[in-house]
Amino acid sequence: MSIQPILSILEKLEKMHKSLLDYAHQKTELVKHNDVDELNNILKIEQSHVAAIEQLEAQRQEKVKEYFRAKGLKVSGPPTVAELMEAVEDEEERRRLADVRSRLMNVIEALKRQNELNQQLILNSLQFVNVTLNMLRPQAEPINYSGRMSQGGGASRQSLFDSQV
Question: What residue spans carry the region label Disordered (predicted)?
């Protein structure tokens, strides 16, 4: 059995992740320019990409399981590309598989870093908004008991509780 269908799926996964990386870069610029409407549009597109990636990953796992069954190997849990590389006997196929895996891992790592940057930008924007709101909002007087002296006729002393409240 050939691993070509698996390689094809991995290449599609790489393409989808590269597309997500492009959208992540666009989101960075949109956050910087405060373009919320376009940011929402990109988020919707990203959701469809994530759904497609989930489908491709399910297909990849199924094809790897088929490959293992055809080779008479047992699969424990979701099969990984590393496990597949160990099972592949043809050196050329193993090299192609390692190449696609390496490219996909690099794109995923870049996507992770870009998403972390976007998250930090959004948190900074939220902090700025909160500081601005706090400056514009009037400060409320602290609500606590004052140290008033009692107004009784005899000796005056300070009470811990304001009994008139």
Answer: 143-165
